[in-house]
Specification:
Distance between the termini of chain B: 27 Å
Distance between the termini of chain A: 34 Å
Structural class of chain B: mainly beta
Oligomer: heterodimer
Helix content of chain B: under 10%
Number of helices of chain A: 3
Number of helices of chain B: 5
Radius of gyration of chain B: 21 Å
Strand content of chain B: 15-25%
Number of strands of chain B: 12
Largest interface: A-B, 97 and 123 residues
């Protein structure tokens, strides 16, 4: 282990590196684009608890730079297999669109002592979500859909049927990806990590 | 966003020319069965993840500098006029590439770590102290008022990154009483490919505590473990500045871009 990584791509030497604020250190990092078609990926590890040293509550408000447009509030609770709240989860949310000066399109929210999270953003029909949970070896990928429910006649939610993933899921599992409208642009969506009503997580 | 492909998809199988991800090889990540200590037992989903074509997840967030401030020097948390953090200064540098060896630029790399004595900065929120008393109270090591242990940098056009910090100390492993966690940095990489989100830990070469660490040992593949170990390297231009460690990261990548798929006649590899 003492003679460099060997094998996968990198040479042993760091010709490398760095220019740090206030320090007159300049090292040059040589590009090392591997000629092999596939380089082994870096392994995942649990996130632990102390990522909160980086937590910024402001990141949960995607409208903080003054984005214009109808607002969407997404709130919910992360629950474990016993239905207990998960107080140390991290949710990341992304609008599949480029960031703009007034709209970052990406946000992050820690769950509180009651497992709750709350995002404020712009209205969307669906959002991509990553849930990072202490103890789990990998992130959990999912999506949340904001579907205007049919009227009292029981009409099926039209937009849901246009989505290939939603259409492919049994109704009870599909329901885990649908936020419930609370009115005034607010939606509720719980993440159930395990057990009854377990949220659909995705593999790409 | 375009319409998602309607065909059923098995992960990793090149089912269309729109670009899919290579399947994750067995052993590349910790075995779930080896990760069920602590709270994970009630948190691991029981359903296998649903395989779906990545309709949105082939791209991902960008992090304009106007939105996110970089903190590349973790030794100066208390400001330039205050004393620096106590500890062995280390410069950690490397490149982020994808599976094809292509640089990943614009990725946000966040790091957090214990201080040189193996103690994390106390939680900022009183709520966190209430939530996790064991995390702080169980650690007897001293605090360093000049070290917070959190930083954020962004990869350049070549996928390169670097930050200056101090080498963290070992601390007792709460999940496995009686064992100690090896020195490590937590490393999070959020980037331009949503499906390639990675949270990992950086270990240091030659650390004898790696042999007993449940997180490190949850990786069954020796090569996968070794890739999490930063390599001691010489800083050619200023060897007296800090100890140098190299840590390269490889993220999942797309199987094929439409252009490449067309060149190969639309097929896979």
């Amino acid at each position: 282990m003492s003679e460099g990584k060997g094998g996968s791509g990198g040479g042993p030497g760091l010709d490398a590196a760095a220019s740090l604020d206030g320090d007159a250190v300049q090292l040059s990092m040589l590009p090392q684009v591997s000629a092999t078609p596939r380089v082994p990926i870096t392994a995942s590890q649990p996130i632990g608890s102390f990522w909160r040293l980086l937590a910024e509550p402001a990141l949960a408000d995607l409208t903080r730079f003054g984005a214009a447009g109808p607002r969407l509030e997404l709130r919910g609770t992360v629950l474990d297999g016993d239905g207990e709240p998960v107080p140390d989860a991290c949710l990341e949310l992304w609008h599949p669109q480029p960031a703009a000066a007034e709209f970052p399109a990406w946000g992050r929210c820690a769950t509180d002592a009651a497992g709750r999270f709350r995002f404020l953003t712009l209205a969307a029909t669906s959002l991509s979500v990553i849930v990072l949970v202490r103890g789990l070896p990998l992130p959990l990928w999912t999506r949340v859909h904001f579907v205007a429910l049919g009227d009292a006649s029981g009409e099926a939610p039209g937009e849901a049927l246009d989505d290939a993933l939603l259409a492919s899921l049994p109704a009870e599992r599909r329901a885990t990806l649908l936020a419930r409208p609370l009115g005034d642009g607010a939606w509720e969506w719980d993440v159930r990590l395990q057990g009854e009503g377990e949220t659909v997580f995705l593999d790409f | 966003m375009s319409d998602p492909p309607a065909r059923p998809h098995t992960p990793g199988e090149p089912t269309s020319d729109q670009g899919h991800f290579w399947p994750v090889p067995a052993g590349a990540h910790p075995d779930a069965a080896a990760s069920t200590f602590g709270p994970a037992e009630r948190r691991l989903p029981r359903h296998p993840p649903v395989a779906t074509p990545p309709t949105l997840e082939r791209s991902g967030p960008r992090f304009p500098s106007s939105h996110h401030q970089a903190t590349a020097d973790l030794t100066r948390f208390a400001g330039a006029a205050a004393p620096p953090a106590i500890g062995q200064r280390i410069l950690v540098a490397g490149r982020v590439t994808d599976e094809r060896g292509q640089p990943v630029s614009g990725a946000m790399i966040e790091v957090w770590q214990a201080n040189a004595a193996g103690r994390y900065h106390p939680p900022a929120e009183e709520q966190d102290v209430l939530l996790f008393p064991a995390l702080d109270a169980a650690l007897h090591a001293p605090l360093d008022p000049h070290f917070r242990g959190a930083g954020r940098v962004f990869t350049d056009d070549d996928g390169a990154y670097r930050f200056l910090t101090i080498k963290p100390g070992a601390y007792p492993c709460l999940e496995r009483p009686g064992t100690w966690r090896p020195s490590h940095l937590h490393v999070s990489i959020a980037g331009p490919v949503w499906a390639a989100r990675l949270v990992t830990q950086l270990y240091f070469e030659g650390d004898p505590l790696l042999a007993q660490d449940p997180f490190y040992q949850a990786l069954g593949d020796e090569e996968a473990r070794r890739r999490l170990v930063a390599t001691l390297v010489a800083l050619h231009d200023a060897p007296e500045h800090a100890l140098g460690y190299r840590f390269d990261v490889v993220l999942r990548g797309l199987f094929a871009t439409p252009f490449e798929a067309a060149e190969r006649g639309g097929g896979g590899r």
